[in-house]
Specification:
It is a single chain. The protein is α+β, with helices and mostly antiparallel strands. 17% of the residues lie in helices and 41% in strands. The protein is built from four helices and ten strands. Strands 5, 6, 7, 8, 9 and 10 form a six-stranded antiparallel β-sheet that branches. A two-stranded antiparallel sheet has the order 1-4.
Length: 183
């Protein structure tokens, strides 16, 4: 897939050939690149509703998304640092955090730019729903003040639990998504 993850796909059973179609039952597992240790999930069988009016049917199970999440988490992909340039674009500084957290205001009288380090602390959980899928992410965010000499000093760390729903639709032959923060 990329430098962090690889996909292994194989036939679950022999292809079923019928008059109007061929049924290929593939099992896809995503692994961290170069590490083919089994993921901590068990694949559950599922069926695709019979729709004979389409030329191609693709179905992805929760297992595929769970192994993807596991692979990218294991490879360290869910750790990101948002640097000064990005924070200044959104105008995030110690002054903003100081208005919310009084201890930051006491510590940092002079406004400094900040740097955010976001890290997933657990494997993100992906659940498929009828018309969308849900992603639950647990992580931490450490906020640093970027001092004039480019050194950083940790201001605070907080734990985060986010639950989002993502719905995919096709509009004008384009795949579009909508994201909703549930909590």
């Amino acid at each position: 897939i990329d430098d962090l993850a690889e996909v292994d796909y194989s036939l679950n059973s022999l292809p079923a050939v019928f008059q109007p179609f061929i049924d290929l039952d593939l099992k896809g597992i995503v692994y961290p690149a170069g590490n083919y240790a089994g993921p901590p999930y068990v694949a559950a069988p599922f069926t695709i509703p019979d729709q004979s009016d389409s030329m191609l049917h693709l179905a992805f199970s929760e297992y595929f998304f769970q192994t993807s999440s596991f692979a990218y988490y294991t490879a360290g992909a869910f750790s990101i640092t948002i640097a000064e340039e990005t924070c200044s674009y959104f105008n995030i500084s110690t002054e903003i955090f100081g208005s919310i957290i009084p201890e930051v205001a006491k510590y940092s009288v002079t406004p400094y730019p900040v740097m955010l380090k976001l890290t997933a602390t657990e494997i993100p959980i992906i659940s498929l729903e009828q018309d969308s899928f849900t992603v639950e992410i647990r992580g931490s965010m450490e906020v640093f003040a970027v001092l004039p000499d480019s050194a950083t000093e940790s201001l605070f760390t907080m734990n985060i639990a986010a639950n989002t729903s993502i719905a995919l639709n096709i509009f004008d032959q384009k795949l579009m998504g909508s994201l909703c923060l549930n909590r």
